[in-house]
Amino acid sequence: MRDKNTEGLTRLGSDHQYVFAYSSEILEAFENKHPDTDYFVRFNCPEFTSLCPITGQPDFAVIYIHYVPEQKLVESKSLKMYLFSFRDHGDFHEDVVNVIRKDLTALLDPKYLEVIGEFAPRGGISIYPFANYGKPETKWVEFAEKRFFEYSLYRK
């Protein structure tokens, strides 16, 4: 039984076909029942894959998404399918992380959002891009700036 909060969600509870080409249209959101409360939502995608845009070889990563919702929350099955849509998508690691951040920001209009990619080494080098967002004219702008500047200081 669906409540009014989940109306319009088409992925959850249905059979699905994976999309093998990047598509932000896969993402769905639903109403946050606690918009007056600041809280973090964290997603980990330990089996993320995309393709190198030059060689076509697969790139493997753990993608971390942390956000503080306002009016909307991302539906997790649609997020899983969206992240899967990168499987045959060729883009550099830094681009992938920024595209995910921009797509989720456009969908959710969150108070705060960050995306971290921990890409497995290829050629002996690991790449860990970080992109974040703080909602303008809120305390989250300052938080995003502080988090951005401190991100690399505490990483190994």
From TrEMBL:
Sites where the protein binds substrate: 74-76, 93-94
Substrates-to-products reaction catalysed: 7-aminomethyl-7-carbaguanine + 2 NADP(+) = 7-cyano-7-carbaguanine + 2 NADPH + 3 H(+)
Protein species of origin: Syntrophobotulus glycolicus (strain DSM 8271 / FlGlyR)
Function: Catalyzes the NADPH-dependent reduction of 7-cyano-7-deazaguanine (preQ0) to 7-aminomethyl-7-deazaguanine (preQ1).
Predominant subcellular localization, coarse grouping: cytoplasm
Protein name as catalogued: NADPH-dependent 7-cyano-7-deazaguanine reductase
Claim: Protein biosynthesis is one of the keywords in the record: no
One GO CC annotation: cytoplasm
Enzyme Commission (EC) number: 1.7.1.13
Gene this protein is translated from: queF
Single annotated GO MF: preQ1 synthase activity
Similarity comment: family membership: Belongs to the GTP cyclohydrolase I family. QueF type 1 subfamily.
InterPro entries: GTP-CH-I_C/QueF (IPR043133), NADPH_dep_7-cyano-7-deazaG_red (IPR050084), QueF (IPR029500), QueF_type1 (IPR016856)
Keywords recorded for this protein, A-Z: Cytoplasm, NADP, Oxidoreductase, Queuosine biosynthesis
Pfam families per UniProt: QueF
Localization per record: Cytoplasm
GO biological process entries: tRNA queuosine(34) biosynthetic process
Pathway where this protein functions: tRNA modification; tRNA-queuosine biosynthesis
EC supergroup of this enzyme: oxidoreductase
Active site: 52, 59
